[in-house]
Each structure stands twice: as C-alpha cells, then as structure tokens.
Amino acid sequence: MAIPATVAVLVLLLLGTSSQVALAQQQNQLETPRLTERDQRREFLAGADSPFKFRFAAATGAAKVDNPAVLQLQVDKAGNPFLSTLPPPGMAQFLTALKPCGNLLPHNHPRATEFYSVLYGEMKAGESQENGGLQNITLSVLPGEVFVAVQGLLHFNHNPSCTPLVFVQSFNSADPGALNIIGALAALNGGGPIGAAGIKASNAGTITASPQGAFSLDQDCLARCGLPSTGAPGDGLGGLPNEFRVLFGLAAV
Fold first, then answer.
1. Are 99 and 72 in contact (CB under 8 A)?
2. Which of 4, 78, 164, 215 has the fewest CB atoms within 10 Å, measured from its CB?
3. 158 annotated to bind ligand
4. pLDDT tens column, 188-222
C-alpha cells in the first residue's frame, strides 16, 4: 500500500528533528561552554592559591599516584574544574617523576594529544602509528625537548637511568582518558590464553608496580643499578636535586 505524500513528509521531518536532538545532546556531552574571563576567575578561585595559578604539590587523593615506579601529580577535570572551562575541550597537566628503571607501559589517550616536556634526566620513548604507518618509533628525549604522543596512538615511556626522570605531561583536553594496553589485554577474555597467559610469557617479572598494567620496573636496569627488584629504597627519588623535590612537595622551599 502506498504511503501518502503528506505522511512521508511528516516522517522525514520527525526523523530529521530526532537526529538534530541526538546531535545536540552529543555536543552538550562533549563540550563545556566557554566562560568569560570574570567567570573563569571566579570558578578558578574556588580551589586555587590565587587567580589562574595552581600547585602540583597540592594534589591529593586520586590525583596523586605514588608507587615503586612513579610519582605523578595530576591536575585535570576532576582535580581542577577550571580547566574544563577553557575553550573546548579544555586541558590537563601532570607533573611526573619516573623513578629509577621505571616504565609507563604502552597506553593511549582516546581524547587528547599529549606533550611530554622533559625537565630532568633522559626519557626513552616509543610510539606506534596506525596500521600501515611506522610502528617502531623510538627515541631519546633530553631536558628542554618535547615528545608528542598523537591522540589515539600507542606509546610508552621509560627511565633507563639509576636516577629519577622528571617531566610535565600536557593534554589538549581536560579529560584525555587512558587505556593501558597490557592491563586491558590481561583482563580481556577473562584472562584466557589471548590475555594474561600471553602477557606473562613476554613480560615475566616486569609488571611489579600496578595490577592494572600501567607501570612497571625494568629488572635488568635495577640489577645494573644495584637496586632491589622492588625498586629504589625510600621514596625512590633520593637522587633528585632539591629544587625538583620542592616541586613535588617533598622538600621545603
């Protein structure tokens, strides 16, 4: 039976309206309205020392990650709502000390490009492009240099030294997200032969700092440095100059 032309037009209008509503809802979820300078300052003052200023050392709770491989202080959408008021999609920054022989294992950020700015030490880094591109890009990053991890691409960071490595991680999103590949593979398929067994075979003894597979310690590096298999003693940052310990709130100004 043929559908009357008026009914067909009405259906198309309804479908179009439904699509527009769905698109508007999606945009509202992804974007934070840009605030005026005055509103930004008022928002920021709720949790800042002074307008447009924050201290990494003030990070606490979930915003502070401290284990045998890393000390990381995070300022992101959760830790500072002001950052999400910047032109969409905002920004986030982490101050990180990768402890002797520490690794940030392969991971990606689905919603942001990341900029690693090295302040102290030497970073070994690697990145893999999507299928068809270069998949074994490795390099050394020194103080004053920047390593760029493009949005969505797999990358890793390693401290090959017996002393700490310090860098700032900057994201062009207040909510960059992170997917730790080894932890995800280990959990996939209930940890079956494609998951945990394969990971253990290729990384035996290295994933010591986090069951989520985000951090690890390089056992060969620890042996070369004369450090125990559990990492450097104390807070792991004993070799860090005092001016950098101040940045992390580990020493007085």
1. no
2. 4
3. no
4. 666 555 545 455 544 434 443 444 468 999 999 99
